Amino acid sequence: MARYTGPVCRLCRRSGVKLFIKGSRCLTPKCALDKRTKPPGQQVSRRRQRLSDRGVQLREKQKARYTYGTLERQFRKTFDQAERQTGITGENLLVLLERRLDNVAYRLGFADSRSQARQLVRHGHIMLNGRKTDIPSCLVKEEDTISWREGSTKTEYYQQLAASIEGKTVPNWLSLDRQTLVGRVASLPTPDDVEANFDGKAIVEFYSR
Q1: What is the pTM of this model?
Q2: Over 70: is that where the pLDDT of 162 sits?
Q3: Which domains does the chain have, with CATH numbers?
């Protein structure tokens, strides 16, 4: 499957906000956005033109895509699913993105970034309800359990994680047994549970044209 393989800090600079693509590194002085606030590309002397409404909508959509690490086709399928549900489409979209298995593994503190969590899932280290699941886009449901494959608990990465998990914060809609590193979906996330750095309404307007 095709995926963006270029410098990810460039995506944050293009969006103008921290997308936390590199996880905890984004909170350190090494963050590229703190050192280089200007967008990538050649800087011209004339005043930068104001974005059109379409341009603003596109930027918000790209922020959401970059944050959760999805490609356009997959993101559009998620949007279509959100549109079919009852309620506000923008909020439905955010909840669906949060319910992705790779995002849940990231929220539980199993990885420092969503890309790292996606790799853990793809390599079969994560189990959903006791079964190995290697599909990062799989949606979790209420009362689902997320655990580690028995063979993965013997890796050096797991040992380091077990030693540092106490310092990680878990959102209210998830629970984590820090002794066994087994997470549970206590309830489905709500838009208030997630600090979104993009405008869901603008994304709806983008796809409505």
Answers
A1: 0.80
A2: yes
A3: 9-37+51-97+196-208 (1.10.1050.10), 101-185 (3.10.290.10)
